[in-house]
Amino acid sequence: MSKYHPEQDLLTEYAAGTLPLAQSACVSIHVERCGQCRRQVRQLTELGASLFEHLEPVAVGDAQLNAVLARLDEETPLAYDNSRAAPESTPAILQRLMRGDFSDLTWKNIGSSLRISYLQTGDPRHELALYHIRAGGRIPNHTHRGNEMTLVLQGGFSDADGNYHEGDFLFRGPEDAHAPTALQSEDCICLAVLDAPLKFTDWRFRWMNPFLKLRAV
Amino acid sequence: MLRVADKPESGVSEARTDEWSECLGLIAKNQDRAAFTRLFRHFAPLMKAYALSGSTLSANHADELVQEVMLKVWQKAGAFDARKAAASTWIYTIARNCRTDLYRRLQKFDTPLSAEDVSPEQEDPDAFSLLQQQRNRDKIRELVNTLPTEQAQILAKVYMEGKSHSEVAGEMDIPLGTVKSRVRLALQKLAIQIERKPHE
Ligand SMILES: [Zn+2]
Q: Which residue ranges form the domains of chain B, and what is each CATH number?
């Protein structure tokens, strides 16, 4: 049971379909596992549907109808199995993006406690990555220039504001500084989405170079 | 206005049937073209309005979208389950996903994920949540026309024009916080509540 959830405005953008792809992917993995947020999203989708029903219709001619009817033969209705599989331990979206398992990923070591694997979503303005923090490992204090979305997939971590466990979802703005530390008991895997890679490069650069950072102060 | 509350609650476990879910059922079962035509005449003009409200799609793309969505409705009718969703909600989510994918295609977005991949699946509701869901639906549909103009306007931009909160803020030249608080107020009026236990 998650304790930390996406805010309502984020869920609204998600339900309206306006959230950037990488962020949608991250939110959907939380929502898939969180009954509270699923019910929220369902209501927010009902809202979208009722706005849709109230639109002023725009005439569509018979030519269009006939064009669609002519194509129905190529498109046989598909048979569907409506039973829903229980969520697997690795979310389906991640399996798709990882093209394999966690062990098949290419990781980039950053210091001794952290490694990062970037996933290609095609979203040009957001970076989606898996963070693997060793049990008890600490990430140096940092701030972001953009927004950071984090979903705990396995294990947990803590910072000055709280403790986060599997399924917890965090959204941090540029003004928030934090120094996450993985729980002592097990390694922590998070999914993170960051704004604009350019900003991230800068942030990563500073973070990877503590001496430079010290000198800059 | 008490129509909803007056309905006997014994019918809860039965699927709510209406003209549109019947049409979907006929398509799934018999590949019924007459039922499809009825759906088309009702929903295609709404889809076209939806396609054009984003204002970035040309009339050609809007027509293309209408065709694509209606073909999906035909193909996927077997997946529709009247216990899980209203037909119009189900059709709306297909239109929403197709429009998002079309935007991404037009932006030459190369991605292995479709909008459908990242939208939540309908789950099997128990009798209680089914009742809850129907009440929520009825309430939202009843109240959506009573919203103050400034709130309705923002919801239309977010949902129908497909703009992010910050795009809406920029376009209307108002602070992002104002957009968010108007959305929040509207959701309160529609009784879309956040059922949250406070952290800890
Ligand atoms: Zn949640």
A: 19-127 (1.10.1740.10), 145-196 (1.10.10.10)
